[in-house]
Design goal:
The chain has one helix and 13 strands; from the N terminus they run E-E-E-H-E-E-E-E-E-E-E-E-E-E. It is 8% helix and 35% strand. The longest helix has 9 residues. The protein is mainly β and 110 residues long. The chain has two domains: 41 residues, N-terminal domain of TfIIb (Single Sheet); 66 residues, SH3 Domains (SH3 type barrels), CATH 2.30.30. The strands form five sheets. Strands 1-2-3 form a three-stranded antiparallel sheet. It has a three-stranded antiparallel sheet with strand order 9-6-13, with no helix packed on it.
Length: 110
């Protein structure tokens, strides 16, 4: 059985202690049930590796052409209140060009 990485510092130097897991590096303790709940949740990361959650604001890191239109979303455009969804386009949001789906690799957390 492998132990999960620490949710606080991300290190893999963890060990079980009864009902808890303990991180030897930072001393953080968490319940095994919390680990299962975290594994079930989908983790979406931006271009810098920061975890994105519903309601976050993001900024575009690249000009994006909108398919089927002559509109281009410019680099640096701030998008507020994203929503994480399933599929290859992980972000559902409203931009100045209307509602659209974006890939998380083209944004960074604002």
């Amino acid at each position: 059985m492998t132990t999960p990485a620490c949710p606080q510092c991300g290190q893999t130097n963890t060990y079980p202690d009864g009902e808890l897991f303990i991180c030897a590096d930072c001393g953080f303790e968490w319940a095994a049930a919390e680990t299962k709940a975290r594994d079930d949740a989908r983790v979406v990361r931006d271009a810098n590796g920061t975890v994105l959650t519903d309601g976050d604001a993001v900024t575009l890191i690249k000009d994006l052409k909108v398919k089927g239109s002559s509109i281009t979303l410019k680099v640096g455009s701030k998008i507020k209140s994203i929503r994480i969804v399933d599929g290859d386009h992980e972000l559902d949001c409203k931009t100045e060009a209307g509602s659209m789906m974006l890939k998380a690799c083209f944004v960074k957390k604002a």
